[in-house]
Amino acid sequence: MFAPDVLVARAAAAGVKTLGLTDHDTIAGCAEASAACARHGLHFLPGIEITAVTGERDVHVLAYFFDVDSTALRGFLAAQREIRGNRVRGMFARLKELGMPLDGEAILRPGLEDPSVAVGRPWIARALVAAGFVSSVNEAFERWLGRGCPAFVPRGGASPADVFAVVHEAGGLVSLAHPVLVKHDDWIPAFARQGLDAIEAFHSA
């Protein structure tokens, strides 16, 4: 992970002319990235990757061209962060019941204090490693945190349609991120009827 100004400098050195920053569930880095793009002569696109939920499955929605000062969007993202935090707290509670107590509030604090930081299961996995309960992050997910595992808590949050609506209200466009990983092409027609503007066409997978 790079700070926005470092990311922009590397992109400029690689010959990038237009750059969009799409952090997960936060736009806190957009101002810094925009300023860095101006210094390096790049065209900046405000962006974000928002996690929606349908059928207890994550659906990542890319958003571009929106007004970063939109009150509705900022309020929506604050609510998303609260949902993330509550899910992680639920996992800490389950781990405690399983004999693996962790200082959940201390681990969560950076994410609660800094809106540019997205709290998630990798934080718990690293804490489990540090506490000696597992030997690796992979083991943490395979034994405890993965779907169907004892400490897993399903994600809650906005539906894709709700995400589309709030981004459109902020003047933006929405694209389905990495449909190859979603593995539900059958969902795309319904998403299109709900307001999906595009799908991501290229992915490393």
Can you give a write-up of this model?
By secondary structure, the protein is an alpha/beta fold. It has nine helices and five strands, in the order αβαββαααααβααβ. A five-stranded mixed sheet has the order 1-2-3-4-5. Helix 2 links the parallel strand 1 and strand 2. Helix 5 crosses helix 6 (137-145).
Distance between the termini: 20 Å
Quaternary organisation of the protein chains: single chain
Shape: globular
Largest sheet report: 5 strands, mixed
* SS strand fraction: 5-15%
Task: Return the structural class.
Answer: alpha/beta
**How many distinct beta strands?**
5
How would you summarize the topology of this molecule?
Blueprint lengths: L3 H10 L4 E4 L8 H11 L2 E12 L2 E8 L6 H27 L6 H10 L7 H10 L6 H9 L14 H10 L3 E4 L2 H4 L5 H7 L3 E2 L6
Parallel strand pairs: 1-2, 4-5
Antiparallel strand pairs: 2-3, 3-4
Helix pairs in contact: 1-2, 3-4, 5-6
Q: Can you give me a brief rundown of this structure?
A:
Helix content is 48%, strand content 15%. The chain has 205 residues and is of the alpha/beta class.
Features:
205 residues; 48% helix; single chain; five-stranded mixed β-sheet; alpha/beta
